[in-house]
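Budget justification aside, the reviewers requested a transparent look at the raw inputs and outputs of the sequence design task funded under Objective 1. We therefore reproduce one unedited record. The lines immediately below are the structure tokens for a 73-residue chain.
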């Protein structure tokens, strides 16, 4: 499971985080009031970055991400 804090009207993205607290931080920085929880297949993930403590997952094909839940903050 991965998290994403979407900007308003965002249509295209490639990064997610493994950490809900990080997604919450990005939501606050972007002034949005929800984060999205997705399920990704491991074979669709092309990179994992642990630098800067963001636990960032990169997946280029967003249509393959399955939205599980939107969580209000």
């Amino acid at each position: 499971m991965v998290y994403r804090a979407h900007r308003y009207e965002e249509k295209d993205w490639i990064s997610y985080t493994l950490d809900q607290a990080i997604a919450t931080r990005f939501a606050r920085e972007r002034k949005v009031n929800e984060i999205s929880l997705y399920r990704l297949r491991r074979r669709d993930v092309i990179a994992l970055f642990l630098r800067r403590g963001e636990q960032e997952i990169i997946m280029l094909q967003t249509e393959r991400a399955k939205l599980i839940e939107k969580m209000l903050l």
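The beta strands are 2-4, 15-17, 34-39, 47-49, 56-58, 66-72. Residues 38 and 60 are 14 Å apart (CA to CA). Computational costs for records of this kind are itemized in the attached budget.
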